[in-house]
Design goal:
Strand content: 15-25%
Bound molecules: NADP nicotinamide-adenine-dinucleotide phosphate
Length: 332
């Protein structure tokens, strides 16, 4: 049995999803010879540490009751650098202004010889090359499947399953909120403002929807894809971005009469990075509805491969994180 110790930094929807998944997959993990032990968990209120392995059920319950994982707030050590463990799971909020606190957490993990698995796209959309170099310099692994497409294993597919292929281009829908809004507008012939309000009430859109509807979230994900797949050094500022705020029900209706839908498409090819609403034939593989995400990858040997699935959600995102944790456990 291989013991792998990890910390979870950020205990919101994703961090708690990871803890739930580790609990529910206990027998599966043991069957595959892996003893996953969470030795530290932190949120904005403090941290819980137990080098023998935290009682996850207890900490999830405490978080629900008190709002924090911390049993006491007085701890004078740094969880990432001072507590001995193998993997830092970084799941703090995305910040695309300076990447913090995720950027500092990831660099600190690398410097103290720890692998990083993350769902936090901010640091990668700003400093991908710097992070990759820091991981390489310290001889540790850097995995970020959950940053793009939630549950969809896009990086895994390209880097592992399609190894040997040259990726010629990639296009897709990488934001579930805008896809939901466009789908509802088209199906119900409703105006943008009304559907946005409904999406906010359902918790599909944020109170401040700017990042989603202006295409910024999609642009961040496209940059991470391009940097990872094509070895580019782009930041989200290099993306030509148009959001969905100006799309009218009339435009969607006209498209529909001609057997098209309008989708917010991300595209990376020939060094160009574009996020913009585009006409897509109704029966095209990119024409997925609701909050679904989709990625279509054009390669030289395999041709075109398209995958779609849930782009967000606590357990769905934890699926990608768990897969990355297992990759690290097997390859380190
Ligand atoms: N939710 C999804 O479906 C999804 C999908 C893909 C990627 N992501 C990305 O994954 C990350 C986490 O998302 P989420 O939905 O779990 O966000 P969330 O629910 O807002 O949780 C964020 C967590 O980070 C904690 N935090 C904030 N500042 C911190 C600090 N300085 N040190 C330690 N913890 C800190 C928060 O503490 P408090 O609890 O005390 O506020 C909270 O527990 C984000 O970057 C997001 O973009 C999310």
């Amino acid at each position: 049995m291989k013991t792998v110790r990890l910390s979870i930094i950020g205990f919101g929807a994703v961090g708690q999803g990871v803890a739930q998944s580790i609990l529910s997959k206990h027998d599966y993990l043991h069957k595959h010879g892996i003893d996953l032990r969470v030795v530290g968990i932190s949120d904005s209120g403090g941290c819980e540490v137990d080098t023998g392995g935290i009682d996850l059920k207890k900490v999830i319950a405490r978080k629900k009751q008190t709002g924090t994982v911390a049993a006491d707030s007085e701890r004078d050590f740094d969880l990432i650098s001072d507590v001995e463990h193998d993997i830092v799971v970084e799941a703090t909020p995305t910040n695309i202004k300076d990447g913090e606190p995720g950027l500092g957490n990831m660099l600190s993990a690398f410097q103290s010889g720890k692998h990083v698995v993350t769902s936090n796209k901010g640091p990668l959309a700003l400093c991908f090359a710097e992070l990759k170099e820091a991981a390489e310099d310290n001889g540790v692994l850097f995995r970020y499947e959950a940053t793009v497409g939630g549950a969809i294993p896009i990086f895994n597919l390209i880097h592992e399953a399609l190894a040997g292929n040259k990726v010629i281009g990639i296009e897709g829908i990488l934001n579930g909120t805008t896809n939901y809004i466009l789908t509802r507008m088209a199906e119900e012939r409703l105006p943008y403002e009304l559907v946005l309000k409904e999406a906010q009430e359902l918790g599909i859109a944020e109170a401040d929807p700017t990042y989603d509807v202006e295409g910024i979230d999609s642009a961040c994900k496209l940059v991470i894809l391009a940097n990872s797949i094509f070895g580019q050094c782009a930041t989200y500022r290099d993306v030509d971005v148009t959001g969905i705020t100006k799309i009218t029900p009339e435009a969607l209706e006209l498209a529909s009469k001609n057997n098209y839908v309008i989708k917010l498409i991300c595209e990376a090819s020939d060094g160009r990075l574009i996020v913009a609403p585009r006409l897509v034939p109704k029966r095209h593989p990119l024409s997925v509805g609701g909050t679904l995400n989709v990625a279509s990858i054009l390669t030289d040997l395999a041709g075109r491969i398209t995958i779609s699935g849930k782009g967000a959600g606590s357990i769905e995102t934890a699926s990608s994180i768990l897969s990355d944790i297992l990759y690290v456990a097997r390859n380190s």
